[in-house]
Design a protein that fits this description.
With about 260 residues, this protein is α/β, with parallel strands linked by helices. It has a domain of about 180 residues: P-loop containing nucleotide triphosphate hydrolases (Rossmann fold), CATH 3.40.50.300. It contains seven helices and five strands, in the order βαβααβαβααβα. It has a five-stranded parallel sheet with strand order 2-3-1-4-5, with helices on both faces. α1 packs across α7, α3 crosses α4 and α5 packs antiparallel against α6. It is globular. The termini are far apart.
Amino acid sequence: MQHAVGAPQPGGPSPQHAPAPGPPPSAPPHGSAGHFPPPTLPPTPPTPPTPPPAVPAHAPAHGGGPPHGPAHGPIAVLLIGAAGAGKTTLARHWADHRAAPTAHISLDDVREWVRAGFADPQAGWNEHSEAQYRLARRTCGFAARNFLANGVSCIIDDAVFPDRPAVGLGGWKRHVGSGLLPVVLLPGLDVVLARNAERTGNRRLADEEVARIHGRMAGWYGSGLPIIDNSHLGVEAASAALDRVVTRSLQGPPIW
């Protein structure tokens, strides 16, 4: 009987037609025969170090020495006053004698950075002088924010009128921020006239203008803002009074 090559023979395959043996089974893995090794686990991440306990605000930062700067951080004071009220002198003295770093920003100084084309209000108040005042206020506001962001307090002096809130306090609040502390310096008219008479250059105003500005400043009474009457105070006593006002205001800022 004929059979096709590779077909099975009756009674089982003959040796000469047996299929070729397959590859030998692979050796069992290491360990017990027939058992697979346990799966490899990802490495355990290192445990982060425990952070040191926070230092309380009233505790010294280094060793037993005093803390660096006041606990409340930098502050921005807006010292409001008429021409001749003594606000620039007081602001400079207060900034000079504080324990914490403090800058004095004078609006008049910044306004007079404009040399060619300076719009002198004494020559007549017009749109150019108004525009230069607005620009000076914005510039002072930028400077104040920059000082505060770098841990330096500042005091700004300006003649802010209570009957122009959008230009006055509202403008300063937009420029500097809600943490601005306004304080009014308001001596008597006779004192303001005498101090104005000692001025020179474009900062000296006519007596009629000084009286008009002083009358408008009286509108701050009843506003809720702290007011310092420095009619009979020297610069050191007025500076101490300003310190007291700032301390009280930091405990409970005035609503304005």
